[in-house]
Fold:
Amino acid sequence: MTTTVHTPAEARPAPDSMRRTSRAAGILYLITFVSIPTLFLYNPVRDNADFVLGAGSDTGVLVGAFSEVVVALAGIGTAVVLFRVARRQSETAALGFIASRVVEGSLLIVGVVSLLSVVTLRNDVAGSAGADSASLITTGQAHLATYDWTFLLSGSLMPVFNALCLGYVMYRSGLVPRILPIIGLIGAPLLLLSDLAIFFGVYDRVAPIAVVAALPIAAWELSLGVYLTVKGFKPAAVAALPATRRDSELSPA
Structure:
């Protein structure tokens, strides 16, 4: 009598496990959009050069900074949650996705620290007398410039690599409708060109053309978040994914 032995390499994650993965990734993607109000919450520090001297309220800045920390952590979370799935199609793309998300989140937090430094400096000024107003304003503007540059490299440039890595995986695997990653793969070079134009001073990061160039990537991430949350991965595509030995170690017994 012949006995067939199934090795761990043949193991595949259960469908309900994949559904939990897709739902978690979708929710985390949607959470990354909570920082949109920062466009308005940061107005007091952006519009008032003397904000550091005590002009305007700092509540919006604090709320915006907190939301960006949440976004940074949620962004890293999307890569961690999807790594198990993405590496089945391409381990290189999966690692690239994690790396770009970690860089994005780290730079976002650096930008947040620069804005919080302005708030701290402002509070210190309120309790002191005889401060040099011109020097304080210059320092505040320097921190704001730091935030702008870190945002360009994190919230604008890194999504290009996110879309290329994850878009490739989703398109090749068919885990989601292919129109979704196509939007991301088309939007990535457009956003990259826009970022380069901003970097070399062709136009400002809040220019209308910069906003338009960012829309396809925003549409890709939002639609992916909604689809993964509501529908999940396509069952046929999940079944077609190659199994790996590591999956048997990660799947619940």
Summary: The chain has one domain: 14-239.
